[in-house]
Structure prediction request, 321 residues.
Amino acid sequence: MISSDASVAGSFDLINPSRQPKEYDYLRLGIVNRFLSMDMTEFIAQGNTHIKDFSAGGIILCSPNPVLSRLSAGTSFGYERGNISLGILGLAETERYSDGVTELKGKIIFSTAVKAERFFASTSYGFTEDNFIYYMQTGFQDRNMKLFLQASKENVFVISGGMVFAFDERFKMGILGDTEKRIIYSLEADKNPYRVEYRGMVHTDLPLSNGIYLTLYSGNKYLRLHEIKTNKVKFEFGGKIKIEENLEYPIDLNRCSYDDMMNIKDISRQILRRIYVNRLMYGDYIDYSRIDSIAGVGKKTLERIKEQTYIGEENGKDEEE
Prediction:
């Protein structure tokens, strides 16, 4: 579940500064109940914001349990350019036992991530006073599915793998299994500007663990879009000038570039930019219903978009059916 311990499968991605989404700023609040050697209730508060290619965030993990109370607080900084992102996370932790013994710990983690159109990978290395931490993940993602394999070590070495499936743009489900005999499953419901997540962990020898999170987010106004390239001009004999437009109609709304989106005819650039940013923020379009809800898109505008684009099969018939 959520933990400052990198060996807890499926959780480290949420505090990894190089894997924070650049499309939006957010504030996440959550509560987790899990069983280690005893019942543990943990509260989380996390935020992240962007300024151009840089991001900064903070995280607080609080476990006010009677036998062992724990408080972790940290800050993160990230930088992203193109397909590569870098990050650094510093955590300070205090643990107080019921007999009055108090321990102070520190942790620093460096991370990097690489993303392509369908493949992604990330790795992180961290240090404590007496321990070396590492985390690695690689995976493949297509329109509605993401498959991944990851390995991590802090207190123990753990290998895990799983998948995330999107039923539509608002509802996702994930499942993960690891070598610690744990199965972690998640459900996520997304409706701008809210996201609700539920995570459960099943273990062969331990009771069920549960966690629920609420995220409030807003679009990143500093999101760097692709530069607009001018059309190539080809000169022909006879004084004729031919403009080469590489755009072929209809275009795939989920695969077209920013340039291609801006070349859709008879639609204002402001609306086209909203459609493009919406795809970046919420993922590929399943159908045209999400576009219909974008500000400025009426019935006539939607018809013009449908005439020049498709979602699904290239002939555009799949969406209509």
Notes: DSSP finds five helices and 18 strands in the chain. Residues 232-320 form a domain with the DNA polymerase; domain 1 fold (CATH 1.10.150.320). The first strand starts at residue 24 and ends at 35. Helices lie at 258-262, 269-282, 289-292, 299-308, 317-320.
